[in-house]
Amino acid sequence: MIEFDGVRHWFGDRLVLQDISLTLEDRRVAIIGANGSGKSTLIRMINGLVVPSQGRVLVHGRDTAAQGREVRRLVSFLFSDPDAQIVMPTVQEDVAFSLRRHRLPAAEAAQRVAGALELVGIGDLAEQPAHALSSGQKQLLAAAAILVTEPSILVCDEPTTLLDLSNTRRLMRLIDGLPQQVVLVTHDLSLIRSWERVIVLDGGRVVCDGPGDASVAAYLRLHEED
């Protein structure tokens, strides 16, 4: 469970989030809104990358400001640019790097790496140079490097921005099949019309919170004159 309790946040003298109180228990939650609406700030609070100026954020009962290290073991991020997350020379080494702090026996670590690569569908690329992959393959590699740590919550910040239609569908099929709770920020409204919960932000406030189709319709009405 993710809880936002009376959250406000300023960047300098600019108020970017206003009076956010949400409880996120749904398996799939999407957040949509125009640029500057506060989406990225909101999701970065889920693992303490940003802490609220006022109020608090709890993840499974842990305060992200006071218990950030514990929270970051539970929450992982998938960003829009996979190159920012790839750090090792080969595909296999990059996924294994994510386990460095877990201090697992070598055989167990190798098994988990292989399992993560198979899960995202790039097991045959284990020995390939990571930065020689296609954009779609890189995003799947970034997902494998996250999922190998077995997080409870996966936060995805516009993960399909650099992908073509085929790779977008491939990544979304992967996300849809995961057992983890997923919080997704996207500008591609077609991806989340069927999601169980979609939250619309505008001017740092929640202006709609409901099923995908209803929230997308509300968002479109909000911007129909833009």
Provide a compact summary of the structure:
The protein has 226 residues and is an alpha/beta fold. The chain has helices spanning 39-44, 68-74, 91-97, 106-120, 135-147, 165-177, 212-222; strands at 2-11, 14-24, 28-32, 54-59, 62-63, 75-78, 153-157, 181-185, 197-202, 205-210. The chain has one domain: Rossmann fold.
Topology:
Blueprint: E1 2-11, E2 14-24, E3 28-32, H1 39-44, E4 54-59, E5 62-63, H2 68-74, E6 75-78, H3 91-97, H4 106-120, H5 135-147, E7 153-157, H6 165-177, E8 181-185, E9 197-202, E10 205-210, H7 212-222
Parallel strand pairs: 3-8, 3-9, 6-7, 7-8
Antiparallel strand pairs: 1-2, 1-4, 4-5, 9-10
Helix pairs in contact: 3-5, 4-5
Question: What would you note in describing this structure?
Answer:
The protein is of the alpha/beta class and 226 residues long. The protein has one domain: 3-Layer(aba) Sandwich (Rossmann fold). It has seven helices and ten strands. A hairpin with a 2-residue loop joins strand 1 and strand 2 (14-24). Helix 3 (91-97) packs parallel to helix 5 and helix 4 packs across helix 5. The model has no long low-confidence stretch (mean pLDDT 92).
Report the strand count.
Answer: 10
Label the overall shape: globular
Tell me the strand percentage band: 25-35%
End-to-end gap = 35 Å
The CATH superfamily bears the name P-loop containing nucleotide triphosphate hydrolases
CATH topology: Rossmann fold
Multimer state: single chain
| Alpha-beta classification | alpha/beta
Number of domains: 1
- Which CATH top level class fits? Alpha Beta
Mean pLDDT: 92
In what order do the strands lie side by side in the largest sheet?
6-7-8-3-9-10
User: How can the largest sheet be summarized?
Assistant: 6 strands, mixed
H and E string: EEEHEEHEHHHEHEEEH
Rounded to an integer in angstroms, the radius of gyration calculated over CA atoms is 18 Å
Helix run count: 7
